[in-house]
């Protein structure tokens, strides 16, 4: 049962990764990439690796998403000048 849930989450992760690549808007790509990171946190929890899941949640989902959003906001401000 756990393996089936892991495979389903893996397919959803691949779907979100493809949506991040194919999205026309950068903000949508960032959101899809963040969803991929959050699903990888769930995969790590299923694999019984909570320390790796916490690290992925903090760095992959939180820090990288905020860095991408701040970079996107900076790009829009510099483009307006």
Overview of this structure, please?
The chain is mainly alpha-helical and 81 residues long. The chain has one domain (1-80). It contains three helices and no strands. Helix 1 runs antiparallel to helix 2. The longest helix has 31 residues, at 50-80. The N and C termini lie far apart (55 Å).
| Helical run tally | 3
Q: What is the rounded Rg?
A: 15 Å
**Poorly predicted runs:** none
Measure the end-to-end span: 55 Å
Going by helix content, strand content and strand pairing, the class is: mainly alpha
Q: From the structure provided, what is the oligomeric state, counting identical versus distinct chains?
A: single chain
InterPro entries: MrpA_C/MbhD, Nuo/plastoQ_OxRdtase_6_NuoJ
Keywords: Cell membrane, Membrane, Transmembrane, Transmembrane helix
GO cellular component, one term: plasma membrane
Subcellular location: Cell membrane
Summarize the model shown.
It is found in: Cell membrane. By secondary structure, the chain is an all-alpha fold. The chain has three helices and no strands.
């Amino acid at each position: 049962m756990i393996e089936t849930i892991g495979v389903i989450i893996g397919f959803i992760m691949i779907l979100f990764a493809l949506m991040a690549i194919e999205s026309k808007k950068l903000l949508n790509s960032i959101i899809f990439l963040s969803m991929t990171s959050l699903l990888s946190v769930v995969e790590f929890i299923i694999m019984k690796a909570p320390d790796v899941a916490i690290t992925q949640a903090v760095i992959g989902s939180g820090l990288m998403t905020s860095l991408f959003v701040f970079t996107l906001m900076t790009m829009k401000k510099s483009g307006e000048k």
